[in-house]
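Example record

One chain of 455 residues, shown exactly as stored in the release files.
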Amino acid sequence: MLACGASIITATPPAGQFTMPLRRLVTIVVLAGAVAFHLAGVTAVLRQPLSVNRATPDQRPWYWSLFSDAVHRPGPAVDFFAIYHAGVNVHQGADVYRFDEQPRVTPYSFPYRYLPVVAHTLGAALANLPPRVAWQVWILILEILLAILILLVWRSAVPADVRTFAVVVLLANMPYLLELHMGQFTFAVFALLGFTLLLGGGPGAPEPGRLRRLVMALTLSAASLLKMVPLVTLPMLIRKRTYRWAAGLALVLALGLAVPWFLTHPEDWQTFRNLNFKPPGGMNAGNFGLVYVMHVLVGSSAEVAATWLHLLLLGVTALAVLSARRLEPAAAATALVLAHFLTYAHVWEHHMTGIMVMGVLFLLELAADPRDRTGKVLMIVTMTALVLLALPSAFVLLDGVKNPAVWDPSAGWSTGSRLLMPLPKVLAQLALFVACALRIADGGFDWPWRHLRAE
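Predicted structure tokens for this chain:
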């Protein structure tokens, strides 16, 4: 995949009447292979039984041994069932953050950690279905979002080889299979954020009209209500006039629906805050964040420093975004998202799906206007990072036993083994962040208020 990506930048098509048909044939074969791989993965996800870790090995999907979160956590659908369980609580007239059910309907789940409005809408709607059927419906929704994202990517005004690379990465990346397996929401959140960016200012996109601006506002609002992480892109959204209405609606809805509820239900606020802003633990083999790498190297002091690093890196990145003379939406949004993930303590392998969506958008932006040789180098860096994010980790080699009863298989590993698993994806995140930072800094900086008035 990477070799194909490098040829996008370096190769010049030879003259001859058979060049274009051959390239089209190669493109068709590559895309068909990616689609076949994707369908094989989705089929394996859907065919497995619930509580698959208790099933016989022949009932487990072919990808099961590739992910720590598949082997060492309940599943499938353990994250999805958190929202389903909150919806059951709504139907039973109970607090959405209550963990038990009377009577029990949800097979198993992690604690519900999202905004109450998600439980009262999406959760309550899905809870009308049997648990397994509801999870399958959620997988269908994710597949529809992926198809829309691929369509928007394919319509971008960038070279065909770049579009092919981007589509293959989206179809054939391994963390997306884990996303489906767990029934997670990260991809949905970043796909919706991606729709907002592509509709508002993607490569080749026209100036959005009223209908398009409405769709942008709705997709950004939905993403921010499902998970609040898209709001870290507010400095870019506010800077660019195209996105201000969408940003305003998303912020008003998020605060307007959350603050009154938490003021009248202070115990829910305590639960929400503890689960999202002060989560304990998490320093185990399923973690793929820079903070975890620091924890392995220096111990628990890394987690204490992470809070200050989080504020510092996000603040500096936001200031750079607001001050840059020449700002592109995807570069700015990707930098802000990565500033969050690089300093967040709980970064899991499924989070790579969201980072990959942002990386693809950044790649399209670079391909639409490389500017100079530096832009082409940044394209190579971005494609390399996307490949590293898409590949499986070394877990399958490091955990020889793969005992589902064990919560953290890395407890007995050497320091080198504990680093080997997350390091490629952490380096990919760092490389993407540096590439975005260089792109933002390319035109220099000025006082922020000048750009707010002009743009």
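Notes: Residues 174 and 390 are 6 Å apart (CA to CA).
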